[in-house]
Amino acid sequence: MDETALIQDALDGNLDAFNGLVLHYQDLAYNVAYRIMGESGAAGDATQEAFISAYEKLAQYHGGSFKAWLLRIVTNACYDELRRRQRQPVTSLKPELNDGDVLEDPYWIKDPSANPEERIEQRELQKAIQACINELDEKFKTVLVLVDVEGLDYETAAEAVGTPLGTVKSRLARARERVQGCLQGFWELLPDLFRLNDEEAV
To answer: What is the pTM of this model?
Structure first.
């Protein structure tokens, strides 16, 4: 994908070019939104709003990392949606499919190579991790999702959240510590790397 050309064409009014950018980044945008929101319906709403906003604000993009610019819009859309839902709380916290069935986990975290028992353990672990992520304050949650979940480098994450690099590293360290501490409540589900040893637990 020639991102620069697509951006320029989109700025010139080519909607197909912007749709090409949407197709390229929609999974990343949704995944980030889902991890921040913790619920698929809200993540879908935030992602849709983010792309609409990105199209409307495209003229404000002046170079640099388009991914970071877009993810900043996505995270801001998530914050707006979270605040809106706090004012109008919903009862269901589990994502639902169109037929009403509950989707226990997003599709991208499933490992088709795992056996049924391993898949159950992975599913429960992912639920535990998401529950702990949900407990983080927005500023800590966002950097954890961008760096540890989506694999962005520190510089891109810092640009995406509009925060100095050192602050991002500090927030990430605190977020990791809080999530690790939270996960101790799900002890039997944890891989060894998440578990505190006896000395650390004292």
So the answer is: 0.68
